[in-house]
Design goal:
Length: 105
């Protein structure tokens, strides 16, 4: 009986490990055309390349564009729509749809 439990748990571990991991969080790299940003908790590398902090929530992020970037002073609001899509709004501009960046080989 004990051996059977170990075998079942081992099989479950193999299947679970093979399943792609998906995090239901805004953390990660996001792309739109040639622009990209990366969120890690309250830290963001902006599309302009600045490392700053913002207001982090597992499903959202806000920050103010730094002085050295186009649109300086504009508030950026991001909302995670699903695991692969973020809606980004710059001030009063229409929303943009950003996708998770895909690794290149």
């Amino acid at each position: 009986m004990m051996m059977r439990r170990i075998l079942v748990l081992a099989c479950f571990a193999v299947v679970a490990d093979a399943w792609p991991a998906r995090a239901d969080a805004i953390d990660g790299q996001w792309c739109l055309g040639s622009s990209h940003f990366e969120i890690s908790g309250p830290n963001i590398r902006t599309p302009g390349g600045n490392q700053i902090t913002g207001n982090y929530d597992r499903h959202g992020f806000t920050y103010v564009v730094p002085a050295s970037e186009e649109g300086a002073g504009t508030q950026i609001v991001m909302v995670l729509l699903n695991e692969e899509t973020v809606r980004l709004t710059r001030g009063t501009s229409p929303p943009e749809t950003w996708k998770r960046c895909r690794p290149t080989s």
